[in-house]
Amino acid sequence: MQSALIGTIAVPGDKSISHRSIMFGAISNGETVINNFLESADCLTTMNAFRQLGVKIETVDNQVHVHGKGIDHLVAPSEPLNMGNSGTTTRLISGILASRPFETTLVGDASLSKRPMQRIIEPLTQMGAHFQSTDGHLPLTITGGQLTGIDYHMPIASAQVKSAIILAALSANQPTTIVEDTKSRDHTEAMLAQFSPQSITVHGNQIIIQPHHPLVGQTINVPGDISSAAFFLVAAAIIPESNITITNVGINPTRTGILSVLKRAGANINLTNQSQTGELSADISITATPLKPFTITAAEIPGLVDEVPLLALLAARANGISRITGAQELRLKESDRIKAITTEFKKLGIAIEELPDGFVIDGREPWHVVDPHLDSYHDHRIAMTLKIAALLVKTPVTINDEECINISYPTFNTDLAKLRS
Ligand SMILES: O=C(O)C1=C[C@@H](OP(=O)(O)O)[C@@H](O)[C@H](O)C1
Ligand SMILES: C=C(OP(=O)(O)O)C(=O)O
């Protein structure tokens, strides 16, 4: 059984903001300098794709320099662009390619090739782009065209779909309006407002994009990724006597659902040193306390979508029955995360019941290892959640393909080791 987690660490840069900083840099005029860029497999996929589209991008002294010449200077790639495992790269780059006067084919790994792309094909086709795909899946061939602005009511809460439309809308012949029922992460809107304030207005859940204003290169300071910090926040909440601080974590309000749930569960959390050198960030401290059960429903899911596996783990240590619903999008991520968590938690003897859109978990049941061979499903967030869960069992367990952690958090194991007393 793990002893308490103690100490202070910084987690690497935010994945969503790192992807977007390369993309905005690539379609702007002038140099964009990125501090604290996340060098994980997914963000390197974005960097390589824009190099293949003719953009000069170099890393000098830990800073990434993107030499943008404007969207019109992107060139047709000489071979298909490999999107690897990255849904964010695939969906956002499609928005940029939708207006380019050439053909591009996007390919990806086995997991990405199963993920739905119809959600971007549909609005981008409405705007005037042409797509060829097998049943809405990769490989996807995009032929860009002259785009028209649209009024789009988002049928699902998805920052990736919203961002694809925003990026396409910058090259349309008239303004585009997007309305969301539930607000998803708004890093694209924030970054566009920095690169080109005239291009965007936001009123609550309505976004209006005005096309053809210039985008000018910027300096981007990427805060630590709250979705990476979340692994240690939950670990410290559930491992008795833990007391940790994670510095410089991004606390954009569209991403902090995890903090609200931790507080509801009775965790002792404090935010200090708030700063805004880019997006809002803070140091987050947490100490272990007895935990109460909690409920999460659909409206809260977009603000914590990548943290749901971890919140299932939190529930498995809370003193009662917790319910998470409205999370059906999790079945469409790198793996079916609802099935993956249910199956693997049962191997640890956790009292978890699978729902079509979430779980019911009784944290009062003692855990007992039924099967020590855990499966990551090649999904980074499942692998890291299971690594944290494994800290709480005495029997040694194995997790297959732990290396998939490199997709979002290559230094996860060294950061965890720093907190182990
Ligand atoms: O826009 C983004 O950077 C992301 C949006 C979310 O996906 P959806 O847009 O599919 O909800 C999230 O799960 C993903 O990890 C990153
Ligand atoms: C879903 C995720 O990423 P993406 O959609 O970019 O593959 C994730 O990081 O959990």
TrEMBL record:
It is found in: Cytoplasm. Residues 3-415 form the Enolpyruvate transferase domain. One of its GO terms (molecular function) is 3-phosphoshikimate 1-carboxyvinyltransferase activity. Belongs to the EPSP synthase family. This is 3-phosphoshikimate 1-carboxyvinyltransferase. Phosphoenolpyruvate binds at residues 15, 87, 115, 160, 337, 381. Keywords: Amino-acid biosynthesis, Aromatic amino acid biosynthesis, Cytoplasm, Transferase. CDD domains: EPSP_synthase.
